[in-house]
Design goal:
It is a single chain. The protein is mainly alpha-helical. It has a domain of about 90 residues. The chain is flat and about 55 Å long.
Amino acid sequence: MGAYIPPGWPAGVHPPGSEDFESTAVGWLLDVVPPDYRLHGVLRRYPVALAALARYHSKACVEGARQGYRTARTELAGVLPPHAIDTVLAAYRKEGARLAATAEAVDLVERALRGEVFTPKMSLPSTAAERRSAEPEGTEPVRTGPERTGPEAAEQGPGRAKAEQEATAPRSAKAKTAEQKAGGAKAGARRNSAGRGRSDLART
C-alpha cells in the first residue's frame, strides 16, 4: 500500500517516504523559486532549506497579487480603458488562485521533508449541537404540563399563576369545611323555623 498523499500535493512529486521523493521535491521546488536559486548548491544538498526559501517566496507572491488586485483600479484608471482594467482584475484572480495553491503545496512538501507523516482525516460523528442545528427553524419544544416558563410566565405575574393553580387544583379541605358550615347553617335555620311554627300553634 502506497503512502497517503494529502489534498493539494503537487503533481510530479513522488509520495513522502518513497525512493525518489527528495529528488522530485527538489526539482519541483526549484521551479517554484526564481531561476537564480539553482546556482546555490547548498539548496540542492539540503532540501529543507530550499523548501523554507520556497515557502517565503510563494507567500510573498500571494501577498503581492492580493495587493495588486486591491489597487488595480486606482493605479490603472486613466491609463487603461475600463474593459482592460476588468481583464487585468480577472488575470489577478486566476493567477492569485494558482499562487495560493502553489503556496499550499510548498507547505505540504516542506512538512514532509521535515518528517511529518500524513494520514487521512476520519469524519467524526455529528454532535448534539450539530443535530439541533439541522432541525427546521421555528420549531418549539412540546409542553407536557400546565406550567409555563420564560417571558410568558414573567408577564403573567405570581397572582395570575396562583389563580390558575387554584382554579385547576382539587377542592381544598378549607373549602370543604366552608361548605359543611353553610349546610349546617341552613339546617339550623330550618329547625328554628319549624320551632317557631309549633310555638305559634300552641299559642292558638
